[in-house]
Amino acid sequence: MTGVNHLTLACRDLDRATAFYRDVLGATLRARWEAGAYLELGSLWLCLARGDVTPRADYTHVALSCAAPDFASIAARITAAAPLWQENRSEGASLYFLDPDGHRLELHAGDLASRLDHYRAHPEAGVTVI
């Protein structure tokens, strides 16, 4: 495998979901049809598909990346438009929010290398870095 090909999220209201991902998160709308849309969000190919939505109650979520200097402005835009579902308790700047259909999302300024560096510097966290 070479990575994630695309992510598909169900949505009850395609217009509302498309507007959220475009206007709040900055995605580019690339294609649209009656029951769906393709958006580009950085290197992510996101498909929105009209249908029934059953929000999850567990910790499952999608984390979206941003550059550290852009975090505050993007987080402010998201906070003004979306409810939060959790406070940040992890390394790095993160904002945990819901999309209009209740999908759990995270904005994170960091990557796997920075997370592993954090655990190397804080071995008391109980994580073994391989």
TrEMBL record:
Which InterPro entries does the record cross-reference, listed alphabetically? Answer: Glyas_Bleomycin-R_OHBP_Dase, Glyas_Fos-R_dOase_dom, GlyoxalaseI/FosfomycinResist, VOC_core
**UniProt keyword terms in alphabetical order:** Transferase
Q: What is the organism lineage in this UniProt record?
A: Bacteria, Pseudomonadati, Pseudomonadota, Alphaproteobacteria, Rhodobacterales
Q: Name one GO molecular function term.
A: transferase activity
The answer to keyword Transferase applying to this record is yes
UniProt key word Transferase = yes
SUPFAM superfamilies for the chain = Glyoxalase/Bleomycin resistance protein/Dihydroxybiphenyl dioxygenase
What range(s) does the VOC domain occupy?
3-110
- In Swiss-Prot or TrEMBL terms, this protein is called Glutathione transferase
Quote any Pfam family the record assigns: Glyoxalase
Highest taxon of the lineage: Bacteria
